[in-house]
């Protein structure tokens, strides 16, 4: 069969994280005992009170079209939540409810940028930012960060890119994959640089609730009077609700209205019962805070286990994450020993150790691998053993 060309998709390919997860699941289904540390989702069930609210909404006949921008009580609850948790002062008309944070990002980038617009994306970046920019016919401008800077963008280098014509920046703190968390002062400097050049900031704060011994700094409280900011967040990670598909974008009401028009023609809205589940997550503070705290302390224990284990394996340098649930590892010596890049290394580990990790190449950092600790301590312990065997097989150390 000849290769079909899909003009609007250009070179957009399957997400590397979803691809690796799918490959590992196929092997598992075929009976191969794969340990998958590739998934980007909490392994916990959605807290019971949230799931119940969704089921109750279905039973109550809440199964019709909601407004395109989302249920008004949910939009108000998001504004109130951002006020309480992130120090924001938003009104409901500044909130758009979306099908996960991913759609909020797509709607924001597609609405604000067009053919040839240059958008700065710092490395290591979440895999979907460049494809979303491409789909908007915009041009991703990759800004390399360094381990010595904690994988955070350098404000002077950012300013140079704005001076040479970039109009936007995608920020992600806590970061997937590096776990880097911007401080108030670091975020202030970045916002000041963007403001000097009238550039838009799309701030993806989907991991805001998952931080370790540090505080999450949000554009909600740091923006002050700079208006060219879209805050993106959602329910998937903090509340173990990946399959419910509820996220949101918050920003100037005219941009939110334009994004709502786009949404009205593309996916109409977010499923109504899921919006009721999300509303319960925001309204029932005490139950929610308890559930989040339990999940974060489980992540924290696994983080420690993994950091200690990976640090002891020759040729791997892990960077302690301050947030999210991934360990970002420099695996350069392993790549050198194998004579492959990070994708070759991950395929080798899948074939020989039955271990699924995500190659750094997918995040714009080719000598790294990302390991998710959203799985049990037993699986992590077994994964460490398999990594230990791989070190011997590859002759590193
Ligand atoms: C950094 C980042 N942003 C956005 C998303 C999308 O989240 P959602 O499930 O809300 O679409 C993810 C999911 O992996 C992510 O890691």
Short description:
The chain is an alpha/beta fold and 397 residues long. The protein has helices spanning 16-29, 48-59, 72-86, 100-112, 129-135, 155-163, 184-196, 219-222, 253-266, 272-283, 285-311, 332-338, 342-353, 377-394; strands spanning 35-36, 95-98, 118-122, 139-143, 168-172, 200-204, 229-234, 247-250, 317-319, 326-330, 355-356, 358-359, 368-372.
Can you tell me about this structure?
The longest helix is centred in the C-terminal third of the chain and has 27 residues, at 285-311. This protein starts with 15 loop residues before the first helix and ends with a helix. The protein has two domains: 16-45 and 288-394, Aspartate Aminotransferase, domain 1 (Alpha-Beta Complex), CATH 3.90.1150; 48-284, Type I PLP-dependent aspartate aminotransferase-like (Major domain) (Aspartate Aminotransferase, domain 2, 3-Layer(aba) Sandwich). It is α/β, with parallel strands linked by helices. It is built from 14 helices and 13 strands. The strands form three sheets. A seven-stranded mixed β-sheet has the order 2-8-7-6-5-3-4, with helices on both faces. It binds pyridoxal-5'-phosphate. The site of pyridoxal-5'-phosphate has 13 residues, from helix 4.
